[in-house]
Amino acid sequence: MDELEQSLADLFDSLIVAWVDREFARKQWEEMQREEPPTPPPQHQQPVDDLRVVARYVQARDTYDGNLAFTEDQKERAETAYEALVGRTKEFIPEPISVIHTYRGPGNPDLRGKNHIIDILPDSISVRPQEQ
Fold first, then answer.
1. What crossing angle do the helices spanning 51-92 and 3-34 adopt, rounded to 10°?
2. pLDDT tens, position by position, 26-72
3. pTM as predicted
4. What share of the chain is helix, strand, coil (3-state, %, to 5)?
């Protein structure tokens, strides 16, 4: 494999990993969006007189808010990383083309040896596993 081929292979490997990470982050975020936030303790016309109930609610709300913020941050980071690799790929290959690439990178053993189709379009790049 010559230097340019190796550069493209490394770039495509990175693009595939970034795509997988982005899809995982999106799914995690979507799951968090479906999750209902904790509800405050019921008052039924009277103040809550059990501090344990209030404390559990505050703790559950803090946990929920923290998980939501973490998931949103992970999604944003994954999107940014993927888009940066899309930009680098477009520098190499600005024309529309579809490529079948076999992942050989060191980063993800679950992907190793698996083919992915990389569709380079005028305004975007999509990645998907090649069905066997």
1. 150
2. 999 999 999 888 888 776 666 777 888 889 899 999 999 999 999 99
3. 0.85
4. 55, 15, 30
Residue with tokens 């980071």: 77
Strand partners, 120: 97, 125
Backbone region of residue 109 per phi and psi (left: phi > 0; alpha: psi in -120 to 50; beta: other values): alpha
Which residues, in sequence order, are bridge partners of residue 126? 119
- What is the distance between the alpha carbons of residues 128 and 91, in angstroms, rounded to a whole number? 21
Cβ–Cβ contacts within 10 Å for residue 120, how many?
19
Residue 126 near residue 23, CB atoms below 8 Å? no
Q: Please check whether residue 15 is in contact with residue 89, taking contact to mean a CB–CB distance below 8 angstroms.
A: yes
* Residue that has been written with the tokens 């993927």 in this structure: 82
Ramachandran class of 22: left when φ > 0, alpha when ψ lies in -120 to 50, beta otherwise: alpha
In angstroms, the CA 127 to CA 73 distance is 22
